[in-house]
Design brief:
The chain is α+β, with helices and mostly antiparallel strands and about 650 residues long. Among the domains are: about 15-220, Histidine kinase-like ATPase, C-terminal domain (Heat Shock Protein 90, 2-Layer Sandwich), CATH 3.30.565.10; about 225-395, 2-Layer Sandwich (Ribosomal Protein S5, domain 2), CATH 3.30.230.10. It has 20 helices and 22 strands. The strands form 4 sheets. Strands 1, 2, 3, 4, 5, 6, 7, 8 and 9 form a 9-stranded mixed sheet that branches. Strands 10-11-14-12-13 form a 5-stranded mixed sheet, with helices on both faces. The protein has a 5-stranded mixed sheet with strand order 16-15-17-18-22, with helices on both faces. Helix 3 (about 30-50) packs parallel to helix 6, helix 8 (about 285-305) packs parallel to helix 10 and helix 8 packs across helix 11 (about 370-395). The longest helix is centred in the middle third of the chain and has 29 residues, at about 370-395. It starts with 16 loop residues before the first helix and ends in a 9-residue tail after the last helix.
């Protein structure tokens, strides 16, 4: 019988308590993605000052004590008395949904429209210091976990010095009670800062990482803007087929800027931004661009007689074959899906982007007919290959809904409700047999694979489709796949809410995980984007104390074993190391790796789509030099199994 539920059961979280209670609602996660997001929120505020015309330089510094400092030369957070009887800066830093982003006179366009960025960072930092350079004075405020450390004299900030500069400096240390790790991911941060520089040609960003013995410093300044951005994105995609096509226009207050270039590759790479915020999951601005671009290419193909009356139109994927594109919009009042702003939801933007795209590209195409013909040629090539591939795909995906590959090794679950079903991709028959014996048959499916699957980064499409293990996975998941020449992927047909990679905790297991993730990222990226892909974390050790009062413990890594040994110096115990999942008996495998109540899973996420694509291509591709350099550069981040 549950306890009584009445008015006294309702808890009200005051101030910033809600942020600390549910940080994922505000920054996405408490992993590395959420950790880096703290920096992005502060940097976005400085970028908003630049968009308003008051900031030309931003400084970002990572220090050895784990802190990050962001400074700009903008106007500085207002420090005067707010109508609530305290400095406006204190209101901004301690109140959700407070800031100048709600005042259309202060910021015409802004990425930080929710007004929670600074206060959220404050709530999730063990220490945060604000210094405001304004009116010849330096003002300072300090916080710990969102709580002010200083009592204000008559509500105003103390002055700690004089200055001729203006701007805001924010230094913060992430709270280790909130975050799994507090070591900022530098390559993600540098990629984000470089993107901001491409999007703002007049802005200079100074970056410093002082955490290593040898400091890393870099200035990001891209005066050529989107043209330079597109050239950088397409440099590894093949030979250019067209020059960069740059256009800009305004429709009903929405500023649309876009750059397109086609290469001889079969890849489509389109990045969308709204008010300098990268919309990883796309949104209404990309819908408007893609729809209008497809219409234009088909219209010109018919005007030029390339498409005859009986011919079908090119698909959207056909017209974007080989395209690299950056689309950036400035919109006064954007709506995003979620605080982390990964998808633009403002419906008006679709029409505005389509209008500008139509007007500007028609003007360009009319003056550059040969470029149009080249783009149509790319679409023709794509359509031809697509039709050939459709036959192979039809044969591959034509089986009935729950009919799977003929190897017969899938042990499917009883339930047909995808929301409660999960499938474990297991390495080998031995682990597969143990997993089948220990699973929950109602909701857990087991799919054993024969060794290492094909490296899809190095293989042609026909070899990929001919690979038995890959065909089995595609048939089993049920949602098709998307790659290169078209898009048969439909996530609504996914048969399992969780796809869990369950391999041995050794080098071979890690390699198999990498090959599987490469396949999923290239052929089913939405499975990762929408949080359906996980990696299991089986324990490495079983420690059994000789003292019968103490229960046996499963330990997941060498650090945990070391801590156990330090704590049990006086006692005696036995240590069993699991060399593979196949060594576990069914009860051990259930208790440690399959049981939702006890198991440890890592959800696979994409922080930076552009960087993820580049790193995947570099690590899994054919060129040895860049891969070797990357390994040397990141060697200190490796966790070694000793």
């Amino acid at each position: 019988m549950s306890e009584q539920y009445n008015a006294d059961s309702i808890t009200v979280l005051e101030g910033l308590e809600a942020v600390r209670k549910r940080p994922g609602m505000y920054i996405g996660s408490t992993g590395l993605k959420g950790l880096n997001h703290l920096i992005y929120e502060i940097v976005d505020n400085s970028v908003d000052e630049h968009l308003a015309g008051y900031c030309s330089e931003i400084w970002v510094k990572l220090d050895k004590d784990g802190s990050c400092t962001v400074r700009d030369n903008g106007r500085g957070i207002p420090v005067g008395m707010h109508k609530k009887g305290v400095s406006a800066e204190r209101i901004v830093m301690t109140t959700l949904h407070a800031g100048g982003k709600f005042d259309n006179n202060s910021y015409k366009t802004s990425g930080g429209l929710h007004g929670v960025g600074s206060s959220v960072v404050n709530a999730l930092s063990s220490y945060l210091r604000i210094r405001v350079y304004q009116g010849g004075k330096i003002y300072e405020d300090e916080f710990s976990k969102g709580i002010p450390l200083k009592e204000l004299d008559r509500g105003l900030l103390p002055v700690i010095g004089k200055t001729k500069e203006s701007g805001t400096e924010t230094m913060f240390i992430p709270d280790s009670e909130i975050f799994e790790k507090t070591w900022f991911k530098s390559d993600w941060l540098m990629s984000r800062l470089h993107e901001i520089a491409y999007l703002n040609p007049q802005l200079v960003i100074h970056y410093q990482d002082l955490r290593q013995d040898e400091a890393v410093t870099e200035d990001f300044h891209e005066p050529e803007g989107l043209a330079a951005f597109v050239r950088a994105l397409s440099k590894d995609s093949g030979e250019p087929e067209t020059p960069p096509i740059l256009f800009k226009g305004t429709a009903e207050g929405t500023v649309v800027e876009c750059c397109i270039q086609f290469t001889d590759s079969f890849e489509e790479n389109i990045l969308g931004f709204c008010n300098d915020i990268y919309t990883q999951e796309g949104g209404t601005h990309l819908v408007g661009f893609k729809t209008k671009f497809t219409q234009l290419v088909n219209s010109y193909a018919r005007q030029l007689g390339i498409l005859k009356e009986k011919d079908q139109n090119f698909t959207g994927a056909d017209t974007r074959n080989g395209m690299t594109c950056v689309l950036a919009v400035k919109y006064p009042d954007p709506m995003f899906e979620g605080q982390t702003k990964t998808k633009l939801a403002s419906q008006d933007v679709t029409k505005h982007v389509a209008t500008v795209t139509g007007e500007e590209l028609e003007r360009y195409f009319d003056r550059n007919v040969e470029v149009v013909k080249t783009i149509i040629s790319c679409a023709e090539k794509s359509a031809k290959i697509r039709k050939q591939e459709e036959k192979a795909k039809t044969n591959l995906l034509s089986k009935s809904k729950f009919s799977f590959d003929s190897n017969g090794k899938l042990a499917n679950c009883i339930s047909k409700n995808p929301e409660e079903c999960e499938i474990f991709i297991v390495e080998g028959d031995s682990a597969g047999g143990s997993a089948k014996s220990s699973r929950n048959r109602h909701t857990q499916a087991i799919l054993p694979l024969r060794g290492k699957i094909l490296n899809v980064e190095k293989a042609s499409m026909d070899k990929v489709l001919a690979n038995a293990e890959i065909k089995t996975m595609i048939n089993t998941f049920g949602c098709g796949f998307s790659e290169g020449y078209g898009n048969d992927f439909d996530i609504s047909k996914l048969r399992y809410d969780k796809i869990i990679l369950m391999t041995d905790a050794d080098v071979d297991g890690s390699h198999i995980d990498t090959l599987l993730l490469t396949f999923l990222y290239r052929f089913m990226p939405d499975l990762i984007r929408e949080g359906h892909v996980y990696v299991s974390m089986p324990p490495l050790y079983l420690v059994t104390p000789n003292n019968k009062k103490e229960k046996p413990q499963y330990l997941y890594d060498d650090k945990a074993l070391q801590k156990f040994r330090e704590k049990h110096r006086e006692g005696s115990y036995e240590v069993k190391r699991f060399k593979g999942l196949g060594e576990m008996d069914p009860s051990e495998l259930w208790e440690t790796t399959l049981n939702p109540e006890n198991r440890v899973l890592k959800r696979v996420e994409i922080e930076d789509a552009r960087l993820a694509s580049q790193v995947t291509g570099m690590l899994m591709g054919t060129e040895v030099g860049p891969r070797r350099d990357f390994i040397h550069e990141h060697a200190q981040e490796a966790v070694l199994d000793v």
